[in-house]
Design goal:
The complex is a heterodimer of chains A (about 575) and B (about 725). With about 575 residues, chain A is of the alpha/beta class. Chain A has 21 helices and 9 strands. Helix content of chain A is about 55%, strand content about 5%. The radius of gyration of chain A is 34 Å and the shape is flat. By secondary structure, chain B is α+β, with helices and mostly antiparallel strands. Helix content of chain B is about 20%, strand content about 25%. Chain B is built from 14 helices and 33 strands. In chain B, strands 10-11-12-14-13 form a 5-stranded antiparallel sheet. A 4-stranded antiparallel sheet of chain B has the order 5-33-32-31, with no helix packed on it. In chain B, strands 6-7-8-9 form a 4-stranded antiparallel sheet, with no helix packed on it. In chain B, helix 1 packs across helix 4. Chain B starts with a helix and ends with a strand. Classes of the chains: A alpha/beta (about 575), B alpha+beta (about 725). Chains A and B meet through helix 3, helix 5, helix 8, helix 9 and helix 10 of A and helix 9, helix 11, strand 5 and strand 30 of B.
Chain lengths: ~575, ~725
């Protein structure tokens, strides 16, 4: 055999990966710096296909980076900045140690800073790429904007986060992009459709945070550093796509209205400006004269019949969407003090409603409680002192449920003091076989335009479900039973035979065995399938078994939920009956 | 003291030098005293009070200054004193001194007073008497109360030497304060005297000094030059940077994607975007439907589980209104974990199998199209009292013979399930096997080391007589063959009546007997590890036996004759050997790929073999194709006991310990290129599992598509 002897682990996948420590040494960075660099540049470890090969024969758990990624980091200008910063810190320490305060001043003035613009551009070459990855950025910024201004991170970061999130919300209001809202125990989820991308973000409730000790805030701060840059550029682009001025300015007319009211309350003009923006009540200034973009019509193209149907469906969908966007148009809301103002104002404004609140809650309320034209007053307390006659007093869940149902739901279920109907997640899309809560079925019926039937509907559904279950059970049992029955018959016959003629022979009228054609056919098919499964190859059988196991588990879970629901409903009914008696 | 008085006399002019003098003196005095003692210490010097001025103690010093000021105030008195003698002056002084502390001075000397801590006294006075500690029984509380009540508490000091409390006077307090401030004890002392006013606001005619200007004031400074050049160099080298204007670039944004060249790098194509966080379901709602809430058991289970095993990372909760919803305590945690996932979690591209499970199922011809095959159990043959090891059908298909562990061989009529005949052989029957030659009616029965040849006389007279003749013909040949391990014995009278005609005695227990198709030869298997005498082939017509193998090649499980050609199949534990009987050599060895072969059947065509094994497998060999199995079938859940081919129909069956008989369709094509088609067509169940044994033997009807199976439940069943 000619040629040099090949050595192990000198080519192939072993050379494509590099462990973290080696990467760190190659970059000559400390671990925190390396971490920061990875976060900013979006470098993540890779799981090699053949871990043992990459790990040079060892099975020790290690994290691997792609060697190409690390090489790519070598040319990053930010690495130089990190080193400069290290030197800066050292010099500063020295100056302090020597008590040379003038040197300290000078050094502080020349503190090295870096920009992340090029990294954003590099990580997301197109705008849509950036938009796709914005969810985490939004969640993080919304979280940071709720932090107290002391302690865990720089005040500037918090302020910047607040500014960016307010800008984002204003954009969503201006573009009417919001689609779904969900109040969960974690916070409030919003889903917006921006440039065709569905973006979901989570906003925590407005409470002060109980800062945990086992969380490394430096990591989060580094992420936020990048995310604020990203979000800022995205906001800029989005505002310009709507012909809005960036940084956002409140429309000049509304500014004057607001100005006369309470200018003295705020010491800083900039502060009050952000507050006014975050009130979400004012419309934003446009760069050019406003063009109505809402009336974009789908052009009609000459199409085939097949496509025609599709197009019709698309048109219908668009119409629905338009209607959805204007769901609160013409309604006037007033928020009581205790309801979460920002969330509700945001949602209502996104769907074209007018909203106001108590002056003491926030700046920029357009009208007062006493306004006679208010249609809905949102209250979250058991009773109210002085009700006005010509408005509905409803609980906040109504607003969210309307948005998710895409129709105005009947107000009766949401009055003050009424037990609220369950709040369902709009993100769940049930495929057949999944459990669908009865409330959702009701809502779907409402969407279809059917009138809400009384309780009959529910009971029917239940019955149907039950039948289905029973049928499923029977399928399993059926075959065995038949065999057993036959055997029993045979046994009886034989017994009679063996007992002989001495015993009295009874003749009983035979029962006509009704042959269920469909059922027989079904059974036959089932058996065929079973036999075919026997002939499967081993690997396919394994896969098949796995899939079937998953399916069965799903069915089991759905059944369990249905059972629980039934038990609950029965208990409720019994309670009602007892109450009646 | 005297000096001061003098100064007071001499007036203000020369007061300063005088005072400095006095100060010096005082200082000297203090130095002297400091050598000897600390405060309050009264030494031998005390006897000569003159030397030790009252400055011996702080208090005395205080007193002193007090007296000084007094002196200043009333000059007249001082003048009187001045006249007097030094001694008298001193006495005068002590008159002034109202404190009598000197009288109770302690004589212990300059020692740490802790030494007297445990004694009732604190020292000795001049007379050598003990000075007792003042009675103090103040505890902390009293101390505190006094602190609160006594207005003079703050100026009360304890004299360590005597243990008594002293209340400081105003002057003394003032003095302490002055000393603390670093001022002179003497109030009237002015340290800045004398003040000579050199410069006046008036311009004087002459300069104060007439010194000419230095040369250095006319030439540029070298040091400065050096400094400047250093700075210039540093600036040139870029070490010193001009002060940067503070630009708030953090909040400044522009159109980053303005010129979208969208140069997709290879990196972007290789990029694995992080999976998005899953969207919340109904159970996360603040007001979920009741079925999503945990029951008590679920709650307990959730609490018990490890956080990584939990299906939900939170407990669903229900709030009756929005205002009651609290902050989520793990919010920051979850965000942080997401961050960690984003930058720490290794990513891998995984192809998700999105297969419709129906597509995985192979498309087979429908069993309906492959009829006929047995589908339903039609008859049960009952009568045996123990498990039925073996069954065999007569070549005509009319009779069924079965051998059981209860020591009987029974003959049944197939169509009526009636037991026609019972032959008690006394011992557990291993195998029964009907002679395949239709012109004779003989049955071979194996029990222990014997093989019986039975003539059940269940046929026409002609056939019966033909079989008798066959056996009779053997008798003539008997004497020729005496030697050898096998002996042929004619049956005795009673046994003869039962139908037993011949007994073949073997050296070891016989496990299996098999007829050749012609019905003249009979092979018997005696599995044994150590011997080469595991298989015997008997010729019935000549009453001759021979051992075809000279060597032991493994534990023989079963044997079989080739239906057409002179081949002989021997199945050992893991392989099947095929011997050519004419050439007397091994022609093939089939690897069964299983642990332990249980039984084997040869296709009536002779080109295919199936073999069953105890590890639940059935392997189909195509002899023309390969020595490896063409197909492995894993249909059974438990050990496969027996397999059988149908003689006419393309069917084969396997019987297993799981109580089922599986009938498969196995078409064999004449075209050599086409592989046999194997389709399972029916699973027949009926036998009851007893002692972990299910179906023990299975055999097809020779002409009809019927199958017989015998089980451990002592029954034989017919499926049609």
């Amino acid at each position: 055999m000619g040629g040099l002897q090949k050595k192990k682990f000198e080519s192939g996948s072993a050379t494509n990966y590099i462990t973290r420590n080696k990467a760190r040494k190659k970059l000559q960075l400390s671990l925190p710096d390396f971490r920061r660099l990875c976060i900013l540049k979006g470098i993540y470890p890779h799981e090699p296909k053949h871990k043992k090969k990459v790990n040079k024969g060892s099975t020790a758990p290690r994290t691997f980076y792609l060697l190409k990624d690390i090489r790519f980091l070598l040319h990053e200008p930010i690495v130089g900045k990190f080193r400069q910063y290290k030197v800066f810190v050292r010099k500063l320490k020295k100056a302090y140690g020597k008590t040379e305060y003038s040197a300290v001043e000078r050094l502080k003035d020349n503190k090295p800073t870096y920009k992340l613009d090029h990294i954003v551009k590099e990580r997301y070459p197109t705008f849509i790429d950036a938009l796709r990855d914005i969810e985490d950025a939004l969640c993080m910024c919304f979280l940071f904007s709720t932090f107290a201004r002391t302690g865990k991170c720089h005040v500037q970061t918090i302020q910047l986060c607040r500014r960016l999130t307010v800008e984002w919300m204003n954009y969503v209001v201006a573009s009417r992009a919001l689609r779904k809202v969900f109040i969960s125990i974690k916070g409030i989820y919003y889903q917006a459709e921006v440039m065709g991308q569905l973006i979901t973000w989570l906003v925590p409730y407005q409470f002060s945070h109980d800062h945990p000790t086992d969380v490394d805030y430096r990591v989060m701060a580094t992420f936020t550093e990048f995310y604020t840059t990203l979000l800022g550029f995205i906001n800029f682009r989005l505002y310009h796509s709507l012909n809005l001025v960036y940084p956002p300015k409140i429309d000049s007319e509304t500014v004057q209205e607001l100005k006369c009211e309470n200018d003295e309350d705020y010491a800083l003009n900039s502060e009050s400006y952000l507050e006014k923006l975050s009130a979400l009540s004012a419309s934003l200034a446009r760069a050019t004269s406003a063009v109505d973009e809402d009336d974009v019509q789908l052009d009609h193209f000459p199409v085939d019949e097949e496509d025609f149907e599709k197009m019709e469906a698309r048109e219908k969908e668009q119409k629905q969407q338009e209607a959805h966007k204007k769901i609160f148009e013409g309604l006037k809301f007033f928020l009581n003090r205790e309801v979460p103002r920002e969330s509700l104002a945001f949602v209502i404004r996104c769907f074209g409603g007018e909203v106001s609140w108590d002056k003491s809650v926030c700046i920029g309320s357009p009208y007062d409680v006493t306004d006679e034209t208010i249609t809905h007053h949102i209250v979250d307390r058991p009773s109210i002192d002085k009700p006005y006659i010509n408005r509905y007093y409803i609980q906040p869940q109504w607003v969210y449920d309307c948005v998710n149902a895409r129709v105005l739901l009947p107000v009766e279920d949401y009055f003050i003091g009424v037990t609220l109907p369950p709040h369902l997640s709009p993100f769940v899309e049930e495929t057949d076989g999944d459990y669908v809560p009865p409330e959702k079925l009701k809502m779907m019926a409402l969407q279809r335009g059917e009138k809400p039937a009384e309780e009959n509907d529910e009971s029917e559904e239940e019955e149907e479900e039950d039948e289905e279950e029973e049928a499923a059970e029977e399928e399993d049992d059926g075959e065995d039973e038949e065999d057993e029955v036959e055997e029993k018959n045979l046994k009886k016959l034989e017994e009679q035979r063996s007992k002989g003629k001495s015993l009295q022979v009874k003749v009983t009228p035979g029962k006509l065995k009704v042959e269920n054609r469909a059922r027989l056919e079904q059974e036959e098919k089932a058996e065929e399938k079973r036999l075919a499964i026997m002939m499967m190859k081993k690997r396919e059988k394994y896969l098949y078994d796995k899939i079937m196991f998953g399916k069965k588990r799903k069915v089991r879970e759905a059944n369990k939920l249905a059972e629980k629901r039934k038990a609950h409903d029965d208990a409720e009914k019994a309670k009602k009956k007892r109450a009646r008696k | 003291m005297e000096d001061t008085r003098k100064s007071a006399d001499s007036g203000e002019m020369n007061a300063v030098p005088e005072r400095t003098q006095k100060k010096k003196k005082e200082k000297r005095k203090r130095d002297v005293e400091q050598e000897g003692d600390g405060m309050f210490s009264i030494n031998e010097k005390l006897s000569d009070r003159g030397d030790s001025d009252s400055e011996d103690s702080v208090y005395s010093g205080l007193q002193d200054s007090g007296s000084d000021s007094d002196d200043d105030d009333d000059d007249d008195e001082a003048q009187d004193d001045n006249l007097k003698d030094g001694d008298s002056g001193r006495t005068e002084e002590y008159d002034h001194d109202s404190s009598d502390e000197e009288d109770i001075r302690n004589t212990v000397g300059n020692i740490p007073m802790e030494w007297y801590k445990d004694f009732p006294h604190i020292g000795y006075d001049l007379d050598g008497k003990k000075i007792y500690k003042p009675i103090r029984n103040k505890d902390e509380l009293d101390e505190f109360l006094e602190k609160m009540d006594n207005p003079d508490y703050w100026r009360t000091v304890t004299d360590k030497q005597t243990g008594s409390d002293i209340i400081l006077s105003d002057e003394q307090v003032e003095l302490v304060k002055r000393l603390q401030r670093g001022q002179f004890g003497d109030v009237s002392f002015d340290e800045y005297q004398p003040w000579v006013d050199f410069f006046t606001k008036d311009v004087m005619l002459h300069p104060v000094t007439n010194r000419p200007a230095d040369k250095r004031s006319f030439i540029p400074s070298l040091i400065e030059k050096e400094k400047v050049s250093k700075l210039v160099h540093a600036i040139k080298m870029g070490w010193i940077k001009p002060r940067q204007g503070k630009d708030d670039s953090r909040g400044h944004y522009y159109d980053l994607w303005g010129n979208e060249d969208s140069s997709l790098l290879a990196r972007h194509r290789m990029h694995l975007p992080a999976p998005k966080t899953p969207l919340p379901g109904h159970q996360e709602s603040y007001n979920p439907p009741p079925e999503y809430l945990f029951t008590d058991e679920e709650q307990a289970l959730w609490e018990q589980q490890d956080p990584s095993d939990r299906k939900l990372p939170f407990v669903p909760r229900k709030f009756s209104s929005l205002r009651q919803v609290p902050a989520f305590p793990r919010f920051i945690h979850e965000r942080f974990e997401r961050c960690l996932d984003l930058y720490l979690c290794p990513r891998q591209r995984k192809m998700r199998v999105n297969v419709n499970p129906e597509d995985l199922i192979p498309k087979l011809p429908k069993p309906k199209d492959l009829q006929p095959f047995p589908t339903t159990q039609s008859l049960v043959y009952e009568g045996h009292s123990s498990l039925v090891r073996s069954i065999s059908v007569s070549p005509s298909g009319q009779w069924l013979a079965s051998g059981s562990d209860d020591g009987s061989v029974r003959f049944w009529e197939v169509s009526s399930s009636r037991c026609v005949k019972v032959v008690q052989v006394g011992r557990a029957v291993k195998t029964v096997c009907w002679n395949p030659n239709p012109s004779v009616c003989l049955l071979a029965v194996a029990l222990e080391s014997l093989v019986f040849i039975l003539s059940p006389s269940l046929a026409d007279r002609e056939v019966v007589s033909a079989s008798e003749r066959l056996l009779a013909g053997q008798q003539e040949a008997v004497p020729t063959d005496v030697a050898g391990p096998v002996t042929w014995v004619d049956s005795e009278k009673e046994e003869h009546n039962h139908g037993i005609r011949l007994k073949i005695q073997h050296p070891k227990p016989v496990q299996q007997v098999v007829w050749h198709t012609k019905g003249d030869y009979l092979a018997a298997v005696m599995p044994d590890h150590s011997s080469h005498q595991q298989v015997f082939i008997h010729q019935l017509s000549r009453r001759r036996s021979q051992n075809p193998f000279r060597r032991n090649k493994g534990l023989v499980q079963c044997v079989s004759f080739h239906p057409i050609r002179p081949y002989f199949f021997v199945a050992t534990q893991r392989s099947i050997r095929i011997y050519n009987l004419v050439k007397q050599e091994m022609s093939k060895k089939l690897q069964a790929n299983s642990k332990w072969i249980s039984s084997m059947a040869v296709h009536p065509g002779g080109d295919h073999v199936i073999c069953a094994s105890y590890d639940c497998r059935l392997s189909w060999f195509d002899l023309d194709l390969s020595t490896k199995p063409y197909k492995m079938l894993r249909h059974h859940k438990k050990a496969v006991r027996s397999v059988a081919y149908h003689r006419l129909y393309p069917l084969f069956a396997s019987a297993s310990d799981d109580g089922s008989v599986i009938v498969c369709h196995g078409t064999v094509y004449n075209d050599l290129l086409q592989n046999p088609l194997i389709v399972p067509v029916k699973v027949l169940k009926g036998h009851v599992i007893t002692h972990d044994l299910g179906v023990l033997d299975v055999t097809f009807h020779p002409t009809q598509p019927w199958i017989f199976s015998s089980g451990a439940d002592a029954t034989i069943r017919l499926f049609t």
